[in-house]
Write a structure and sequence with these properties.
The complex is a heterodimer of chains A (262) and B (196). Chain A has one domain. Helices cover 68% and strands 3% of the residues of chain A. Chain A has 13 helices and two strands. In chain A, helix 3 packs across helix 10, helix 8 packs across helix 9 and helix 9 crosses helix 10. Classes of the chains: A mainly alpha (262), B alpha+beta (196). Chains A and B meet through helix 11, helix 12 and helix 13 of A and helix 4, helix 5, strand 3, strand 4 and strand 5 of B.
Chain lengths: 262, 196
C-alpha cells in the first residue's frame, strides 16, 4: 500500500516536472497567488478555525505564556534543536527541488549541530559561517514541480494549509520524515513514539511563543481574524515556495492609478 | 546670450532649491521611526501615546489611498456619498488599529538599511526591527510613494515578506463576500471596531 502511494507520488512528480519543463518563477508565482487560491469549504474551515482557537486558548496560549518566562538561552536552545530535527525533512526536499548545494550545507549543519552542538541545542554551524537555515517541506517541493495548491483548508490542531501542502504532510508519515521513521514507524532501541510527539508539541509551543504578541495583536485588531490568518498564511507559503527574500508584487499599481485619477 | 545665461542660472537655482526640499525615502522612514520611538519611550499613559502616534500616522501614511486600495473592486460601485462615508470610517478604523498595534511596543529599535527604487512613484525602504528577549529580529520593508518628493507617503508595510495592505484587502473582501457584497455591512464592522 505504502509502496503504491510512493510510486503514485513520484509518477505525479515526474509527469508534472515534464509537463512544466518550461516552468519559471512567474508561473509558480501565479499558481500560488493568494487571491487565486479558493476557499472551497469556507463554512467548514471557519468551524475548524473556531475549534483551533478554543484549543489555543485552552492549551497552547497558557503553555506558551509559561514557556516565554523561561530564560532566553534555554528557549533558543529548544528552538535550535527543533530546527535541527527539521533538517531531516529539509534535506530530502532540497534534493527534490534540485538545490544540491543547499542540501550539502544543511547536511553539514545537521552533522555539526547534532554532534558539536549537542543534539542541536547550539547552532554551531551558524557561528562557523554556514548559510542561514531555511526550512523546506514536501508541499514546497510539489509546488516547485508545478503542482498547484488546490483549495485552502484549515486542519484541526495543525491550522491553515492547502490540499497540496496537506498531501505534503502525509508524505512525512509515509517514509518522508526520517525522524518519524526512527521514532514511531520503526521500533528502535534509542527512540520511542513519545520523542516524536513531544518534539511536535514543543515545536508548536515554540512557534506560539515566538509569535505571541504578533498573534495577540492581529487577533485584537482584525475585523475578520480568519481572513487575516488565511491571507498571511498564503502569502508566507508563496514566499517560501519561491525561496525568495525579494518583495513579491505586493500591490497592483493599476489599482493605484485608478484611485489617483479620480 | 544674456537671456540663455539667465535661464541657465535660473534652472540651476531651481534644481538646487527643489533638491533642498525633497526628502529621501530612507531618511523619511528613519525620521518617522525615530518620532514613533520617541513617543513610545516616553513616560506617558497608553492613551496619550496612542493620540501622539495617530498624529504621526496622519502626517506620514496615505490613509485615504490605502483605504480605497483595500476596498478592491467594490470601490467602483460606490456613489459619492458612500465614498465620503467610507473614507471617514476607514480613517477612524486605520488610526485606531495602527496606533494601538504600535502602542504595544516599548522603545522599538528599527534600523533603516537599504532602499530600492522601483520606479519614479515607488521606493522600497528595507529596515530591521532589532531582536529582543521576547521576539526574534523582524524585517520590515516600507513601500513609499514618492511621486511628490517633498511629501513622501507610506503606502504599505511588508513585514517578513507579508504585506499589510494586501492582508487588509483580503480581509475586507472576505467581509463583503460573507455579506453578499453589501457595503453597509463593511461600514457597520468598521463603525463597531472604532467604537469598541
Amino acid at each position: 500500500m505504502l509502496k503504491r502511494f510512493v510510486i503514485i507520488i513520484f509518477t505525479t512528480l515526474a509527469l508534472s516536472s515534464n509537463v512544466v519543463a518550461g516552468t519559471d518563477g512567474e508561473l509558480i508565482l501565479k499558481k500560488n497567488k493568494p487571491s487565486e487560491i479558493k476557499d472551497c469549504s469556507e463554512k467548514f474551515n471557519r468551524a475548524t478555525f473556531a475549534f483551533n482557537q478554543v484549543l489555543d486558548g485552552a492549551i497552547f496560549k497558557p503553555v506558551a505564556t509559561v514557556y516565554r518566562k523561561l530564560p532566553s538561552p534555554l528557549r533558543s536552545g529548544v528552538g535550535n534543536s527543533i530546527d535541527n530535527l527539521s533538517n531531516l525533512i529539509t534535506i530530502p526536499n532540497n534534493i527534490l527541488q534540485g538545490d544540491f548545494a543547499k542540501a550539502g550545507v544543511n547536511t553539514g549543519r545537521l552533522v555539526l549541530n547534532t554532534t558539536v552542538g549537542i543534539f542541536g541545542i547550539f547552532d554551531v554551524a551558524q557561528q562557523l559561517g554556514l548559510d542561514e537555515y531555511e526550512k523546506e517541506d514536501f508541499g514546497q517541493s510539489f509546488a516547485r514541480h508545478g503542482i498547484g495548491p488546490g483549495c485552502y483548508i484549515v486542519l484541526p490542531v495543525l491550522g491553515p494549509s492547502t490540499v497540496r501542502d496537506t498531501i505534503g504532510s502525509v508524505v512525512n508519515f509515509t517514509g518522508g520524515d526520517a525522524w518519524y521513521n526512527i521514532t514511531v514507524k520503526n521500533d528502535t532501541q534509542y527512540f520511542s513514539e513519545i520523542d516524536y510527539y513531544s518534539s511536535k508539541v514543543t515545536s508548536g509551543v515554540d512557534f506560539r511563543a515566538k509569535n505571541f504578541n504578533a498573534i495577540e495583536n492581529l487577533e485584537k485588531n482584525s475585523l475578520d481574524f480568519y481572513a487575516s490568518v488565511k491571507s498571511l498564511y498564503l502569502q508566507d507559503r508563496q514566499q517560501k515556495i519561491l525561496n525568495t527574500k525579494k518583495i513579491i508584487e505586493t500591490q497592483d499599481d493599476s489599482d493605484w492609478e485608478e484611485i489617483e485619477n479620480k | 546670450m544674456k537671456y540663455n545665461k539667465f535661464v541657465f542660472i535660473l534652472l540651476i537655482y531651481l534644481s538646487i532649491f527643489m533638491n533642498a526640499y525633497s526628502i529621501e525615502p530612507e531618511i523619511f522612514v528613519q525620521s518617522t521611526v525615530n518620532r514613533a520611538s520617541k513617543v513610545l519611550s516616553q513616560d506617558l499613559t497608553k492613551e496619550k501615546k496612542i493620540e501622539k502616534l495617530k498624529i504621526i500616522a496622519e502626517e506620514t501614511v496615505d490613509i485615504r489611498g490605502i483605504g480605497f486600495y483595500t476596498l478592491g473592486g467594490a470601490r467602483k460601485n460606490l456613489n459619492d456619498v458612500d465614498k465620503k462615508k467610507y473614507a471617514k470610517l476607514f480613517k477612524k478604523y486605520f488610526l485606531k488599529s495602527f496606533s494601538s498595534r504600535l502602542a504595544e511596543y516599548t522603545n522599538p529599535e528599527i534600523d533603516v538599511q537599504n532602499k530600492k527604487i522601483l520606479n519614479e512613484n515607488y521606493t522600497i525602504v528595507n529596515s530591521v526591527l532589532k531582536e529582543t528577549n521576547e521576539r526574534p529580529e523582524i524585517k520590515i520593508d516600507w513601500r513609499i510613494y514618492t511621486k511628490n518628493p517633498k511629501n513622501p507617503l507610506i503606502r504599505d508595510l511588508i513585514i517578513e515578506g507579508l504585506s499589510l495592505a494586501r492582508t487588509q484587502k483580503e480581509e475586507f473582501a472576505s467581509i463583503l463576500s460573507s455579506n453578499n457584497g453589501d457595503i453597509n455591512s463593511l461600514f457597520k464592522t468598521l463603525e463597531n471596531f472604532s467604537k469598541n
